[in-house]
Amino acid sequence: MEPENQTQVSEFILLGFSEEEELQPLLFGLFLSMYLITVCGNLLIILAIISDSHLHTPMYFFLANLSSTDICFTSTTVPKMLLNIQMQSKTITYAGCITQIYFSLLFGELDNFLLTVMAYDRFVAVCHPLNYTVIMNPWLCCLLLMASWIMTVLHSLLHSIMVLQVSFCTDLEIPHIFCELNQVVQLACSDTFLNDIVIYFATGLIGVIPVTGILFSYFKIVSSILKISSAGGKCKAFSTCGSHLSVVSLFYGASIGVYFSSAAQNSRASAVASVTYTVVTPMLNPFIYSLRNKDVKQAMKKLFRRETFST
Prior knowledge:
This protein is an all-alpha fold. It has a single domain, classed as Up-down Bundle (Rhopdopsin 7-helix transmembrane proteins), CATH 1.20.1070.10. The chain has helices at 24-51, 58-87, 94-127, 132-135, 138-164, 181-185, 193-226, 231-263, 267-292, 294-310; strands spanning 11-14, 91-93, 173-174. A 3-stranded mixed sheet has the order 2-1-3. Helix 8 packs antiparallel against helix 9 (267-292) and helix 9 (267-292) packs across helix 10. The longest helix is centred in the middle third of the chain and has 34 residues, at 94-127.
């Protein structure tokens, strides 16, 4: 079979979950509900942090950025999936597919780095409480955020450019709900050895750095907490990290599920794991931070009272 140049490829086919017509309205309603909950929940977190001066601290600065990233991450994939279900179509243009690859990698990795920065913030708060405001100054917070953006933009751009260099055959069916990098590369007719090397090396490096940072931070946090003599002091210290630790566990648990399902080449399992990674996790993050965090709950109550009185 003669390979087809990538400039001649007009569209890919996203197979999604199911081809049964009777399930499409159910899937549409389910994903629309999850998407709206994700957007509204994260927007409430952002508005609560902006409106309450007590939450203008490094921890909530990064939380607001995490919430905005979650909205963008979900918006990269879900609206196109909803449109395809509604239009009874499974196609996505070549340009749209490359765009999905770029932004899904960008916001997914940005989530990763923000969770790492938040782990460092909790490390400073628990291990160096007296110097917290000095260490976590606005300049350092902006620098950490900028560094996260630069690394994720370059990483996403690298993979997107690499995909643009490959050629595709006539089989353009992607057994997924969106254009996931590995799935698209597997459809290539041309040699993808360099793409595979870059994927494993760059993704491994980008993955190892945040995980190492989070593990080191929590190792230091646990060591410091164990040195506290009073049980009340230990509980208070753990409570400052509880929400973040829950989000980290959910995020990396879903990421591991995506990795192993892709490695097993089980398209249905990979699709389910990807939904957990791209939709469920961003949807649950606001609930975790609002239900487990008294400051956020109080800020939301103030926000609702203000909106009620204003109307």
